[in-house]
């Protein structure tokens, strides 16, 4: 289901609350995006931070859900663990190219890194344009233009051309001031479904939380499995979300209140 608008305050009422805490722990599974959802957007990928109280809340909610809380992110597993330290949660990293099940076991076929010719060509493109930034994450690579937003069209066009030419096994994933290259067919929806096939997620109702285009795959997958999708922040695009929170700050506040309930 795709809706054009969401009434954030009204739809917020659908979210599990501290009062329903005893029920949700046995029935639900949470899938949390990081940047723009739990984390405020920062000028650079390294510039993000998370309050200790939010990490503690995520830990407490994960315990209450029997471990059925996963991170679904465009970041690498290493980055996710660094941001959420000391937690080491089940996760789908790099848009699903890296999967980790509960307890640390790595799952999934593992996807190849983009051809070196692509990374080299992207590097040359970025080096010639001050303000652009290349983030090489392994199976996924990103070109950030947050410092030079006027280059958006140029970046999207050129990265698309280079992927067509050098990396037929990969595809574009636009995001917030970024164009990412991820393994073809490897998205957050497929990742959510893969995690839902195994304990402690199997048999639970998935709730996916996200803000960006890449998160729409996860929101749609959660709905397809009988769950809910929660959009964080305002968007001017159609969304599969069935509930909403106004901002990452509201998301953190909701997590902390839920954990305290
Ligand atoms: O799937 P997510 O957890 O939301 O990660 C998506 C991408 O997030 C990061 O980039 C975005 O956040 C940065 C920090 O706020 C910001 O500077 C950048 O403009 C955003 O695009 C990260 O760098 C990417 O690798 C993730 O895929």
TrEMBL record:
Assigned EC number: 3.1.3.12
Q: Name the source organism.
A: Chelatococcus sambhunathii
Entry similarity comment? Belongs to the trehalose phosphatase family.
> Annotated pathway, please?
Glycan biosynthesis; trehalose biosynthesis
Q: Which UniProt keywords apply?
A: Hydrolase, Magnesium, Metal-binding
Which reaction is recorded as catalysed by this protein? alpha,alpha-trehalose 6-phosphate + H2O = alpha,alpha-trehalose + phosphate
Stretches of the chain forming a coiled coil according to its record: none
Q: Which cofactor does it need?
A: Mg(2+)
Region entry Disordered, spans: 1-21
Q: Which domain of life is it from?
A: Bacteria
Task of the protein: Removes the phosphate from trehalose 6-phosphate to produce free trehalose.
Name the chain's protein: Trehalose 6-phosphate phosphatase
The record's annotation in PANTHER family points to: TREHALOSE 6-PHOSPHATE PHOSPHATASE
Per UniProt, the ranges with Basic and acidic residues bias are 9-21
Q: Pfam families under this entry?
A: Trehalose_PPase
Please provide, alphabetically and separated by semicolons, the GO molecular function terms listed in this UniProt record.
trehalose-phosphatase activity
